[in-house]
Amino acid sequence: MQTAVPTTALWVSLAGMCLIVAVRYLAISGLFAWSAKKIRPDIYAPADPKKAARMARQVKREIAWSLSAAVLYGLPAGLAAHLWATRGLTEIYVDPNAYPLWWIPVSVLLYLAIHDTWFYWTHRAMHHWPWLFKKAHAVHHESRPPTAWAAMAFHPWESLTAAWLIPALTFVIPIHIAALGVVLTIMTFFGVTNHMGWEIFPRRWIEGWFGRHFISASHHHVHHERYMSNYGLYFRFWDKLCGTDKGLSPELLAAKDAAFKAPQPQ
């Protein structure tokens, strides 16, 4: 006779993963928001009292939406973690020799490529269908300009389009537990830094090979300025292939130059 599902363990897994996602968001977004406040006080700590009050309201709204999204992202992750730990139903493995070592970096790239593809096309759909934008994506674009706290500022409908993807992949594509951690770290890093309002990478990177292939704040900021372009999350591949890549933000590049400009000799 099959034993009953250990409901207590399931609820612990669900609640625990929701908490992990929320704490990860608060820690990483908080760290980058603190650093961005030092670099771009004109955005994060404006001198104008009205602008400062508006920004304070915006940040509170971003955090509230992000914490609600953390729950929706945490639930499918918690379910996958529970089924892996109790029934071994996922393709997550812990023995690095279970597959060839070259599969570890390949699996990371495969997960990121699939996630980026899904993100591009669902993101583009939300912008090209007005009813979908209004119902699901308008919340994210209420932030003008976005801050590091906006990384997960999604309406629940938008969260539901993506929260299940990485957990679902663990049931079909083998991945080492450490490689999965790398995927989640990269996902968090790009989600936060793309919305910071200043460019974290050196300008020579942005204008070189890295910037031609990978997305950064300078690229994603254009999306928040123009809307109908620059839809990707990690890579510029789909934007370039589909003609939706509108380049980098001169504003962010100029702000970076101003922030790090060497003092002139007296």
TrEMBL record:
Q: Name one GO biological process term.
A: lipid biosynthetic process
Kindly give the Pfam families that the UniProt entry links to this protein: FA_hydroxylase
Q: Could you list the residue ranges that cross the membrane?
A: 12-34, 63-85, 101-121, 162-192
Cite the InterPro entries for this sequence: Fatty_acid_hydroxylase (IPR006694), Sterol_Desaturase_Related (IPR050307)
The alphabetical list of record keywords is:
Membrane, Transmembrane, Transmembrane helix
Q: What GO molecular function terms would the record report? A: iron ion binding; oxidoreductase activity
Where in or outside the cell? Membrane
Task: Reply yes or no: does the keyword S-adenosyl-L-methionine apply.
Answer: no
**Where would I find the Fatty acid hydroxylase domain in this sequence?**
108-244
| GO annotation, cellular component aspect | membrane
Record's PANTHER family? STEROL DESATURASE (PTHR11863)
What is this protein's record name?
Answer: Sterol desaturase family protein
**From which organism does this entry originate?**
Sandaracinobacter neustonicus
